[in-house]
Write a structure and sequence with these properties.
- The protein has helices at about 5-25, 30-50, 55-80, 90-105, 115, 130-150, 155-175, 175-180, 205-215, 220-245, 245-255, 260-265, 270-295, 305-320, 325-355, 365-380.
- It folds into two domains: about 1-50, no CATH class; about 60-310, no CATH class.
- By secondary structure, the chain is mainly alpha-helical.
């Protein structure tokens, strides 16, 4: 195995080790599961690195990064809808506010900005983690602004409010040149740890660490970012799993099932709803930040309701509403369906052209039709998703944690 292949396999070990660890029997000792996850993850990563062609590997890594970003956002929606029953159809607002916030915080203001308005009017040049943190806070503040006056009313009002705020946010970023370059792309968003694949290197890292990554070229940066995205998915999943199995998580389910009964039990239903809505929005904002740093250049068109709201809802419905593992699984499956339909439509172009010269231009609509068919099949045959909601979420409840049939 070459040095580059060895480093790539080590980078792929983290996400694959997490999957292997989750697949091992829960009855194993903790250290045995951790060791098994690491060994199994590295073995799979090494095999994939050696056997998969480089071109296909690059595609798979890019696919995994975007799937991980969508998984983070789906986890945020799962807190709102899956566990609390809050109908948020303005995901694009929190997704985009997170992306643009981190872009404005982490970019560096170019010279001559105020004279020509050719770029955003400010840029703090903050570190990546600061940008992600501020993005989550900005999305959370927006959720407080929207949810405060609407969550005390019927669910219809929350749906209307989230649709409206998503459109308002989109129009602001589309038209205000001083803020985010208006209709033109907002470029120059820094990539975290890209110094690992550049000649200059990361000055703050020890020399042995830089020597380890020295064989990597700039084109190998996607492997580094995959580790970053996977870390956010893993941390978000573990934190939410702990929260859902706490008394707070059980109150969320009580509010979802029968909020009047929860209120009679002394729970402040409006406050609990606002907490869940805000937590979900913060996670969506973090997902938006990850998206911005991966894309490097963003504009308002990236947060079309199709990609930033509808697709995420389908991901959660397919994976399993009320199950964090299902949210992650659904994100990867639907993203695979969405990207796979692009190849399928390309294959159909000759046949479509034979029927009518105008049909190949309508290929993108076929992708929407395929996703709509998938959603219809989910509702008909798997209304609880691929992984149903767990009946028992507390280890003290005396029951086994099994998904619903």
């Amino acid at each position: 195995m070459s040095d580059v292949a060895l480093i790539k396999s080590l980078l792929l070990t983290l996400p694959l080790a997490f999957l292997t660890w989750r697949a091992l029997p829960a009855g194993w000792p903790v250290l045995a599961r951790l060791a098994g996850g690491l060994v199994g993850g590295w073995a799979i990563a090494a095999a994939v690195t050696l056997l998969v062609p480089s071109g296909l590997m690059a595609y798979l890594v890019s696919f995994a990064i975007v799937g991980s970003i969508y998984a983070v956002i789906a986890l945020g929606l799962n807190v709102q809808w899956g566990y609390t029953g809050l109908f948020n159809i303005g995901i694009a607002a929190f997704f985009s506010i997170g992306a643009f916030t981190t872009a404005l915080v982490t970019t560096t203001m170019p010279t001559g900005v105020m004279a020509g308005f050719t770029q955003q009017a400010f840029g703090l040049g903050a570190p990546f983690l600061v940008g992600v943190l501020v993005a989550g806070v900005a999305a959370g503040l927006l959720a407080l602004l929207v949810g405060g006056p609407t969550l005390r009313l019927r669910e219809d009002y929350l749906a209307i409010a989230t649709i409206g705020i998503a459109e308002v946010v989109r129009l602001i970023f589309q038209n205000e040149r001083w803020l985010a370059n208006g209709p033109q792309p907002l470029r120059g968003i820094p990539q975290p740890l890209n110094c690992l694949v550049r000649d200059a290197g990361c000055e703050w890292l020890p020399a042995p660490v830089m020597a380890l990554f020295a064989p990597l070229a700039p084109r190998d940066y996607t492997f580094v970012y995959l580790v970053i995205a996977a870390l956010f998915v893993i941390l978000t999943f573990l934190v939410l799993e702990r929260a859902i199995r706490s008394p707070w998580g059980r109150v969320l389910r009580a509010v979802r099932e029968e909020e009047d009964a929860a209120a009679m039990s002394g729970k402040d239903v409006a406050r609990i709803k606002l907490q869940a809505f805000t937590v979900g929005a913060v996670i969506m904002g973090i997902g938006g930040a990850l998206y911005a740093h991966y894309m490097v250049s963003i504009d308002y068109s990236h947060f079309d309701p199709l990609y930033a709201t509808f697709l995420i809802w389908v991901m959660l419905m397919l994976g399993g509403s009320g199950n964090n593992r299902g949210a992650i699984l659904g994100a990867f499956v639907i993203w695979g369906v969405w990207t796979g339909t692009a190849f399928f439509v390309d294959m159909l172009r000759p046949a479509l052209a034979a029927i009518s010269p105008d049909l190949p231009a309508r290929g993108p609509y076929l992708r929407l039709m395929f996703i709509a068919i998938v959603l219809l099949l989910i509702l008909l045959f798997r209304p609880k998703g691929l992984i149903g909601e767990e009946k028992f979420v507390s280890r003290l409840s005396g029951g086994r944690e099994q998904p619903q049939a």
